[in-house]
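Morning!

This is the sequence you dropped in the shared folder:
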Amino acid sequence: MKFEKGHNKVGGRNKGTVNKSTEQARLLFMEVMSNQVSSGKINDALNEVYEESKLKYLYIVNKLLPYFVARKIDITSDGETLTGFKVEITKDADKNKAV
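The structure's back. Tokens below.
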């Protein structure tokens, strides 16, 4: 069945509502990983990789980072590609005065 433009969706989850199965899986994963970290297994494994290959260690740490550090997103350009911007540095005699 094809919906006409502007036709509202009927049934299902509202936009932004968390899928219960996904949420349960995420919580289970976090519990398992928490146990691995607190037991020292993750640290031991990373130390072994580091001794074997520093490049492989950095690759793994890079893959793990998004799970621990939020990605920065652009909130200023509304998704538009920024081009032709100019950075101007000025020297002001009064150091306390904002430029």
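Headline: The mean pLDDT is 79.

More detail when I'm at my desk.
O.
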